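Proteins fold reproducibly. Look at a concrete instance:
___
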Amino acid sequence: MLPGLLLYPCALLSASIVLIHLLLAAGVLANRLRDRFRRQSPGEQPRLQVSLLVTAKDEERFLPELLDSILAQTLRGFEIVLVDDRSADATGQIMERFGRKLGGRVKVLHNTREPDTRNPKQFALDLAAREASGDILVFTDADCVVPPLWAEGLLAYFSDPRVGLVFGQLALSGSAGFLERFQAYDQPLIHQWNSATAGLGMPGSAFGNNLACRRVVLEEAGGFLGLGDTLTEDAALVSAAAKRGWRVRVATDPSTMITTRPQSSWREFLFQHLRWNTGAFFHRDPGTRWPYRFIVLFLTASVLVIPLCPWFPLLAMLPAASFIAVGLMGFLAGALYRDELWSYLLWLLPNTLYFMGFYALVTILSMLQVVPEWKGRRLAGKGKDAYTI
């Protein structure tokens, strides 16, 4: 009796998750097709003032390389706003030297105030945005390196006055150990989910280290602090732009792909994903929250039932469907954006399996409301409302 009862719900759920991901794959490809059409019919480069914003806390190791890559930008005359967010190292001094080198183009802010919000970066970004004067605000992080055509490439999307926000691709540097190699698979994979929903016209999230938006979009949201108390301010900004009718576009050209660095320990990596997952799982927008919950809860259930599959073989449909879904998005991340595709494909199977187990764990921790950390700071108190975006 039990196998018969399992057949139909397992088949329905498994088919649903695969069909959803085929639709998401279509969204990823739609971004590429849209960009190809845009390049074939290029518009005039918009004459808009650009401000580049970077906030940093204790980033003396990586900040100089980012600043060098900013100097190499083909776009000229843009403003640079740097925020030293309570750093205990030489981050502030590096920013000041950079400011003296470029003169009036650079504004350096030193934040010594403990933020009122649970997200310190959100507080620092709000400071930077209020100081910036550009029509277009471009964001990256201190541990990133940006290619020469990056700012110019993102700016081109705003030739369409209906576009309010653009986010681009990312790659991870380093491949010394399994942690680094897995992150090089993991973050571009997650980005494809963000890219897919934007491609389908239902944007809900993005990584803020490769993002540009119109100033008016942020002003309509009340600044970063106006987004509410959130673990994922970048996702909240994407959602706010979409709610107000602005188009959200995905930059697919490799010239706008940034390089970021992996987390240095499994603890930091776990907290990074716990922060991202918790922000999405308790997202204020139901249109983002419930589809995301369906996907991650299905993934979690599919992993948890694996030990039962020898006794109830029909349950194997669930992990098989999750593997197809995650593997499809992982394949697209490699096929569309990786040069060394064959090497990437060799690791696709183990990385996909590991991702399934890892993200099941992260989802369980989010449901238990385990509090994530960011640079040594606990970001939220317990309770569902504390996590709500």
